[in-house]
Write a structure and sequence with these properties.
By secondary structure, the chain is an alpha/beta fold. The chain has six helices and six strands; from the N terminus they run H-H-E-H-E-H-H-E-E-H-E-E.
Length: about 190
């Protein structure tokens, strides 16, 4: 019996070598389109079309009824054209994390998506607002957009408060641009518990 198993191992090894040799015979012009499609699929993972155009000044007009605390509505995906006022800096996120859980975002997603910084942006009316930004995006934003620069933010509207809406930046693109360049943000709106 040991001879039989040894023979099978040899056949399995020959099979692997044959498969590798067969792949090496495929012309590169047939493999290249597959590789391009695979990379394009990864870049298209972020659903930009889900984000609806919004006006930050209009969103900021909504405040909690009692003037205290925050209102946590059904989460919305918003696209905002703004001016960067200041780069990412550490900020408190305790209320944000609570509101994210309340809105139905899975605990694993909240734990797996570090958010510890905020940026300041200027609205169309020139008002300054603070927005949370995923840590994975902060360095890319600092490299691509300087304070005073125009950008489009793709964010999840998580809550309303007296100081303005609680929005988490999931993705961004520097302006002017014809197509957004994908970064490493997570589409939080697509991660709700089912």
């Amino acid at each position: 019996m040991p001879g039989m198993f040894g023979f099978l191992r040899i056949l399995r090894g020959v099979g692997r070598l044959s498969a590798a040799a067969g792949l090496s015979l495929i012309p590169p012009f047939l493999i290249l389109p597959f590789l391009i499609l695979t990379r394009a699929g990864a870049a298209e993972a972020f659903d930009y079309a889900r984000y609806q155009a919004a006006d930050l000044d209009s969103l900021a007009a909504r405040r909690p009824a009692l003037g205290l605390g925050v209102d946590v509505p059904a989460m919305r995906s918003v696209r905002l054209d703004l001016t960067l006022a200041s780069p990412a800096a550490s900020c408190p996120t305790k209320v944000l994390k609570w509101a994210m859980r309340t809105s139905g975002i899975a605990k694993d997603t909240i734990r797996g998506t570090p958010i510890s910084r905020c940026i300041k942006v200027k609205s169309a009316k020139g008002r300054l607002y603070s927005m949370f930004i995923q840590d994975a995006l902060a360095d890319s934003l600092a490299k691509e957009v300087q304070p005073g620069g125009k950008l489009t933010l793709y964010g999840s509207l998580v809550y309303f408060a007296q100081r303005g809406p609680g929005i988490v930046v999931n993705e961004f693109s520097a302006q002017p641009t014809t197509t957004p360049q994908p970064h490493s943000g997570v589409d939080l709106t697509g991660t709700r518990k089912k």
